[in-house]
Amino acid sequence: MTLPEGTPERLPGPGAPAERTWQAQPDQHPVSPVFDELTRQRAKEIVARYPVARSALLPLLHLVQAVEGYVSQDGIRFCAEQLELTTAEVSAVATFYTMYKRTPCGEHLVSVCTNTLCAALGGDAIYRSLSEALGTADRPLGHEETVGEPGTPGSITLEHAECLAACDFAPVLQVNYEYYDNQTPESAVALVEALRRGEKPPPTRGAPLTDLRTVELELAGFTDDETVAAAAVAGPSAAPESLRGTTLAADHGWAAPALPDEPPALPPLPEK
């Protein structure tokens, strides 16, 4: 609307909001007391390994899992505190990688490869057998579910796993990331039954079997027992199936051709 004198009408607008001063609120969720002085010291050692502090997040999350058996919201805040990150930044990483569990795990984590080759050779049947053996009559155990009280002796968390990089031994499963090769539904069920009895059957390859929290501490870069560490390094790693190509080459005198002194010329690019 234009007033008679030719100037536009100006309606009174709202007054300027009163200035407010932001005040920090006390943390309503303090870091869990399970992160004791030893854990904090280890966290500082991890951070000191890296020129940029946030690069320490992955081993720091493994340290949290070694203490709690999973990555809790307190664990998220602990990592954020150590690295001066936001909890959103830490959560983005913890939820991206499947090795970081968001619910409490058992003493042992059983990972069954159900990717293409293992599945075709029996991985799906192995997972189904374990799910039924560890569950109840009316409800098989589901992915990332635990039988027994989490963290107690004999408790087991079962999970589907993507490719475990052992196609030459398919079908395979892992217990706390140690390999058990050439499995069948029967051998897999016998394995988890032994675990539930408190036994630790030796893996096909790799370090002697321990428990998930010990492995998580090792992944963070620490070991409390040098004898265990030495045994882990001495454990078998290669197997005839993996070395078959090298063996055939040696038996037949095969060798890759030597690299030329000068790299071959690249073909000319086509005209646009």
TrEMBL record:
InterPro entries: NuoE-like, NuoE_dom, NuoE_N, Thioredoxin-like_sf. It comes from the Bacteria. Residues 1-30, 234-272 are annotated as: Disordered. Residues 260-272 have a biased composition (Pro residues). Keywords: 2Fe-2S, Iron, Iron-sulfur, Metal-binding. The keyword Iron applies. Pfam families: 2Fe-2S_thioredx. Its cofactor is [2Fe-2S] cluster. Belongs to the complex I 24 kDa subunit family. This is NADH-quinone oxidoreductase subunit NuoE.
